[in-house]
TrEMBL record:
It comes from Amycolatopsis mongoliensis. FAD binds at residues 52, 113, 139-141. Its EC number is 1.-.-.-. Residues 353-455 form the Pyridine nucleotide-disulphide oxidoreductase dimerisation domain. One of its GO terms (molecular function) is dihydrolipoyl dehydrogenase (NADH) activity. Belongs to the class-I pyridine nucleotide-disulfide oxidoreductase family. GO terms for biological process: 2-oxoglutarate metabolic process. PANTHER family: DIHYDROLIPOYL DEHYDROGENASE, MITOCHONDRIAL (PTHR22912:SF151), DISULFIDE OXIDOREDUCTASE (PTHR22912). Binds 1 FAD per subunit. InterPro entries: Class-I_Pyr_Nuc-Dis_Oxidored (IPR050151), FAD/NAD-bd_sf (IPR036188), FAD/NAD-binding_dom (IPR023753), FAD/NAD-linked_Rdtase_dimer_sf (IPR016156), Pyr_nuc-diS_OxRdtase (IPR001100), Pyr_nucl-diS_OxRdtase_dimer (IPR004099). This is NAD(P)/FAD-dependent oxidoreductase. Its cofactor is FAD. Disulfide bonds join 43-48. NAD(+) binds at residues 176-183, 263, 305.
Length: 464
């Protein structure tokens, strides 16, 4: 077998792997970046980027309708929406990502990488890459498919099929009330599908504050989606007029496409990690530098969804920076600080990782969604009803929450729900991560008239 030696081999060339490779190369190391599909990964072609491209037109149309005097129609042009999405994804052409890698001093290599020994990665069984210092696994996650009788008799959609669709199904069934389920329900309802969203609870987004799920549920129904709560899909069958979904209560829904959006699991299968005590499909547990805890020798690192820690692109890239910088520093003999706020450690998920759900209304949250059990934490909820929101849209409806550690007088969590609240979440993240005392936060005066004035109202409601 042919072979080649690098300082670092990174497996997985999505945004996380790209960042890990670039940071290691920035430290002067010779880096190989291995990818068996497309350079740019899930986020660029099948997840974050195309899904937001599909969502934005419908959200913008809904927002325009809330302002009198704005000339708008009642329908989107699906062909134009898909064309704009394709511009962002390049229709799967990853040549630009490959050239980017070379431009930052990283060697892109196509192939399926399997870890076949200490600091050894074998590509497609016939090419061995040896790493002098470290292997970094950034393979992301794959969909979790539930066991539903009859599901194997059809070709269900996963998130990839949904975000890369070339036409709008007349009837779309969706199973799952998480982020993918509600965002795709929103997008395709806006594009003209008859959407049936089936969820197990009384509201979607169960990990968020209850009012967030309630407002998103109302928004989806306002957009024309049928939401079947406290339900599930008992069985699936291919019928003469479409796919038949039998729900928990016995109701049958006939759809043209069926999207299964029931979560994801770490993509560790086929990496050879079982030889190191890691089960396929299980997360690679790491310390805050990204070092894999279960593997001796300190040569195996991981970042992103594959670690099971806050499966979000921005969190993964943040963890990748820590891993790449740590590997480069160790290779150079530079001390690596393990302090919580060191650039060599990724600790944000211990405190506050923001997330936005791009439905209408948007959900923007960071930190805790509710008080800690048995604590003295205080929760303050208010409507977003300020001059800025009133001017932003007629009939603006939204809510905001802060979770306060009353003993330390700092924020532990913030949730905003409403039109265009996504741009508010970073200020909340800074306040939480910086542990800004509420008495000090009082002096961060919000601009008038903006939706950000809600900060003042939250602090007033708290008692300042």
């Amino acid at each position: 077998m042919s072979g080649q030696t690098f300082d670092v081999v990174v497996i997985g060339a999505g945004p996380v792997g790209e960042v890990a490779a670039e940071r290691a190369a920035r430290g002067g190391l010779k880096v190989a970046l291995v990818e068996h599909e497309r350079f740019g990964g899930e986020c660029s072609y099948w997840a974050c980027i195309p899904s937001k491209a599909l969502l934005r037109p419908g959200n913008l149309l809904a927002a325009a309708k809330r302002i009198p005097g704005v000339p708008v129609g009642d329908r989107l042009d699906p062909a134009a929406v898909f064309a704009r999405r394709d511009w962002f994804t390049g229709k799967g052409d990853d040549s630009g990502q490959v050239e980017w890698a070379r431009g930052v001093g990283v060697e892109p290599i196509r192939g399926h990488g399997e870890i076949t020994g200490e600091r050894e990665v074998t590509l497609d069984g016939d090419r061995v890459l040896t790493a002098r210092h470290a292997v970094i696994v950034c393979t992301g996650s794959v969909p979790h498919t539930p066991s539903i009788p009859g599901l194997d008799t059809i070709r269900p959609w996963g998130s990839r099929e949904a975000t890369s669709a070339e036409s709008v199904p007349a009837r779309l069934g969706i199973l799952g009330g998480g982020v993918v389920g509600v965002e795709m329900a929103q997008a395709f309802a806006s594009l003209g599908s008859e959407v049936h969203l089936v969820i197990t609870g009384e509201r979607p987004l169960p990990r968020n504050a209850a009012f967030a799920g309630d407002l998103v549920l109302h928004g989806l129904r306002e957009a024309g989606a049928y939401v079947h709560t406290e339900s599930g899909v008992e069985r699936v069958a291919a019928g003469a007029s479409g796919t038949e979904l039998t729900l928990k209560d016995g109701e049958t829904i006939v759809v043209d496409e069926f999207l299964v959006a029931t979560g994801r699991r770490p993509a560790t299968a086929g990496l050879g990690l079982d030889a190191f005590g890691v089960e396929a499909g299980r997360a690679l547990e790491t310390d805050d530098t990204g070092r894999v805890s279960a593997v001796d020798g300190g040569w195996l690192f991981a970042a992103g969804d594959v670690t099971g820690r806050a499966p979000l692109t921005h969190q993964g890239k943040y963890g990748a920076r820590a891993a790449g910088d740590t590997v480069a520093a160790l290779a150079a003999g530079t001390p690596v600080s393990s302090e919580p706020w060191s650039r060599f450690t990724a600790t944000a998920d211990h405190h506050a990782v923001p997330q936005v759900v791009f439905t209408d209304p948007e959900v923007a949250a960071v930190g805790l969604a509710d008080a800690r059990p048995g604590s003295a934490d205080r929760v303050v909820d208010i409507d977003i009803a300020v001059a800025g929101s009133s001017l932003h849209a007629d009939g603006y409806t939204g809510k905001a929450r802060i979770v306060v550690d009353t003993e330390r007088n700092v924020l532990l969590g913030v949730t905003f729900v409403g039109q265009d609240v996504s741009e508010l979440v970073h200020s909340a993240t800074v306040a939480i991560v910086g542990e800004v005392p509420l008495d000090r936060l009082w002096h961060a005066v919000p601009s008038f008239p903006t939706i950000s004035e809600v900060w003042l109202r939250l602090l007033e409601a708290y008692g300042l």
